[in-house]
Design brief:
It is built from 6 helices and no strands. The protein is mainly alpha-helical. The chain folds into 2 domains: 58 residues, 434 Repressor (Amino-terminal Domain) (Orthogonal Bundle), CATH 1.10.260.40; 46 residues, no CATH class. The longest helix is centred in the C-terminal third of the chain and has 33 residues. InterPro entries: Cro/C1-type_HTH, Lambda_DNA-bd_dom_sf, TransReg_Diox_bact_type.
């Protein structure tokens, strides 16, 4: 049995309507409906307030396989990537002198000791 089904079963056993549960929890009616129909994974806050309204610990009702404390989705669209590349081309085209100067300065900073010793060796005729 899924988590939303368990919430619904417990709510019905206490003779609460979805609207009454929403009023007791401070959540919207639509949120309660979506949790009970298993459309969404409820947040920890929602689990806590629903559990308090139903006078039970709902965190024990959810099986470990259903709980996903962290979930990360990354969706890249090709059109977004093409736009990014076009914007990058425009940036480089319009500011290539500044970008070249920054790269040159970074090169000198990272290779300062080698450049310094080469200049000193050349000055001393080595």
């Amino acid at each position: 049995m899924k988590f939303g089904d368990r919430v619904k079963e417990h709510r019905i056993s206490l003779n609460y309507s979805q609207k009454e549960l929403a009023e007791h929890t401070g959540l919207t009616l639509r949120t309660i409906q979506r949790i009970e129909s298993n459309e969404v994974q409820p947040s920890l806050h929602s689990i806590k307030v629903i559990g308090k309204a139903l006078d039970t610990d709902l965190s024990k009702m959810a099986p470990p396989s259903e709980t996903k404390p962290y979930e990360f989705n990354l969706t890249l669209k090709i059109t977004d990537m093409n736009q990014f590349i076009n914007d990058l081309k425009t940036l480089v085209k319009n500011n290539w002198k500044i970008i070249f100067l920054i790269i040159l300065v970074l090169f000198f900073i990272t290779n300062y000791e080698d450049i310094k010793s080469g200049v000193i060796d050349g000055w001393n005729g080595k």
